[in-house]
Amino acid sequence: MSDGLDHDLVIVGSGPAGMAASLVAAEHGERVLVLDEQRQPGGQVFRAMEKNDAASRPELGDSYYAGSKLIRSFRRANVDYRPGTTVWHVSSEGEIGFTQDGEAKIVKAGHVVVATGAMERPFPVKGWTNAGVMSAGAAQVLLKEAGIGIENAVFAGTGPLLYLVVYQYLQAGIPVKAVLDLTPAENYFAAVRHLPAAILSSGKLLRGQKWKRRITRSNIPFLSGIRNIRICGTGAVNSIEYLVGSTWNKIETQNVLLHQGVVPNINISASAGCDTRWNERQAAWTVVVDEWFRSSQSRISVVGDGAAIGGAVAAQHAGYLAALGALERLGKIDTTIQTKLARAHAVALRAELRLQPFLETLFRPARHMRIPVMDDVVVCRCEEIHAGQIREFVGIGCSDPNQVKSFSRCGMGPCQGRFCGHTVSELIADIESRPVGEVGYFRLRPPVKPLRLSELATLSDLPKVD
Amino acid sequence: MFIDVSKQPVETITVTFEGEELCIRSGLSIAAGLLEAGIIHFRNSPVTESPRSPFCMMGVCFECLVIVNGIANCQACMIEAREGMRISRQSGDGSGLTGTKAD
Are B6 and A57 an interchain contact pair (Cβ–Cβ within 8 Å)? Predict the structure, then answer.
C-alpha cells in the first residue's frame, strides 16, 4: 500500500473495549484489523456468548447477555477480525507480530489499540499450586464456555466477581460447599466515604446486593470475617483451613476457587514501552493514558481494563473514545468532530466510573493476602520460587524486580511474570519500606507469549531493518 | 466433580489421554474436556515435579500445558479438542529431558 501500512488501525482484543473501538474506526472507513486469542468475540466478560442463550442458560444473567447487541454490531462491521490469534509482539513503531493457525506474521499499523483486558490478581497463599485449586474466574470460564460446574467447591476471597460466580452457581443449581469471605472488616469503614458517589450508580450497587443476598439467604455456609486461609494437600487439594479470630478451622474439599479482584493485563503495553504507574487504591500496575487513552507511546493507545480497572460498560465507552483519539492522531478527523462525537461517551464513562472508588476500597485485598508473610508460600508458580527466597535476594541487595528475576528465576517461566509480578513489586517495597511505584515492575520483552521456532520460521516478509 | 449443566444436546468426540480413549463433548477446549472427564492432573512442574491443574482457564497462567500429538507446551485451555487428538501429561519443560512422553 502507498502509505507503507498494512492497516490504519490494529486492535488487540475483542472484548467490550476492542469491539467498540473497531466499530468507530470501521464507520470512518479505516482499514481495521482485530486480533483476538479467543475463538469468539466478547472478551472474558461476554465469553462464548454467541454459543449461549438466555432461555436455556438464564443463570449467566442480564449483565452477560447485555453484550449481545455489541457483539452483533461487531460481527456486521467492516473489519478484518481474526479469532484464535496470539499476539506476541507490539512495537512502539506500530509493528504487530502474531500467530494464527501456526503461521506467524508481522504487520505494520498506523495506530495500535491495545485492549487486552484484565486478569485475576495473584493469590499467593500456602498450597495454591495444588491440583484442584483454580481461580473463580476459571470456574466462570468453564461455566460460560463449556457449561461445566464444579460441584462442592469452596470459594475463597473477595471482590464482585467472587459473588457473581457463586450467584451464577446457585442459579444453575450447582452445589457449593462454602464461601469464605476475606473482605477485611476495616474496608467497610474506609469505603463509607465513597458511598455518596457510589449511590449515583445505584444500578450496579443494587445488582451486587442482589448477588450477595442470594448467597447469604441460601443454605450454603457464607463465612465472613476470615483473616487468612491455607490450602492443604500433597499434590492435590484435600481441604482448606481458615482463620477466624485465632482459631484455624478446616473444610474438606477437592476444589478450591480463589479470587481477590482483577488487575490490568499489561504485558503487551509494557513490553511496547508504554509508561505504567502503580495505582495504590487498585493495588495494581496501570498504564498511563490521556483522556483519549493514548499512552506515552504516540502510536499506541491502551484502553479498557487493560489500562485500569473500570468494568465492561466503562470499557465499551472508553473504546469509542480511544478510537476517536486514534483517528484524530492519524489526521482522519479534526478535534471539533472528535469532541462532538465523544461527548455522550465521555459523560457515560464518567458516570460509570463513579462507583469505582467505593468498590476498590471495599474489595481491596488485605495486605497479608497480597504480600505473603510466611516464607514457604510460592510466589512464582512457574519457577517455584518462595517468598523466603525473594526475601533473601532482596536482603543481599536485589532491590529491583529485574535483579530478583536474574538471581532467582522468579518471573522467568512461561507465564512471564503475570502471576508473580504484582507480588514481587509489593514484596520488595514491603521489605525495603519504599513506595511500590518506585520499586517498579519486571522489564517485559517480546515475545510476550511463547512463540515456536516452527511458527517463527513461517515469517516470509521480514520488515527491513534500517 | 466437574459436571455438565449446559442443557445442550451432546455430541461427542474421541481423544486419547495418556494412551487411554476418552469420550468428550465436542466444541470444548482440551482443558474443559479433560476436566469434565475427571482429569485434574495435567502436568508435573519443571522444578519439583509437583502435579498441576489448570488455574486461570484464559491463557495467562500456563499451568495447563500438555503434549498434543507429540507437540509439548500446548495450552490446553486455548486449544479446541478435536477428534483423534493424542494428549499426554507434560513433565518438566516438555523438552523430553525429564521423562516427557512425547512421541
Answer: yes
Give me the residue label for grid cell 509437583.
B50
Best of A145, A177, A253, A376 to mutate (most B CBs within 10 Å, chain B): A145
Question: Are B5 and A174 an interchain contact pair (Cβ–Cβ within 8 Å)?
Answer: yes
A31/A8 Cα distance (integer angstroms): 5
Which residues of chain B have a CB within 8 Å of the CB of A119? 56, 58, 60
> Is ipTM > 0.85 here?
yes
Q: Please tell me the predicted confidence (pLDDT) of residue A75.
A: 98
Taking the Cβ of residue B70 and every Cβ of chain A, the question of whether any pair is shorter than 8 Å is answered with no
Q: What is the pLDDT of residues A109-148, one digit of tens each?
A: 999 999 999 999 999 999 999 999 999 999 999 999 999 9
Summarised one tens digit per residue, pLDDT across range A273-319 is 999 999 999 999 999 999 999 999 999 999 999 999 999 999 999 99
Average pLDDT (B44-61) is 96
Helix (H, G, I), strand (E, B) or coil at A89: strand
CA-closest candidate to residue A45, choices A67, A76, A20, A69: A67
Cα→Cα distances A11→A108, B86, B96, Å = 12, 34, 37
Q: Residue B94 above 90 pLDDT?
A: no
Q: What is the pLDDT of residue A29?
A: 96
Q: What is the dihedral of CA A24, A27, A32, A36, to 10 degrees?
A: 50
> Which residue of A lies nearest to B94 if distances are taken between CA atoms?
A414
Contacts of A9 (CB under 8 A, 6+ apart): A21, A22, A25, A30, A31, A32, A33, A109, A110, A111, A112, A113, A323, A326, A330
Q: How far apart are CA A7 and CA A414, in angstroms?
A: 30
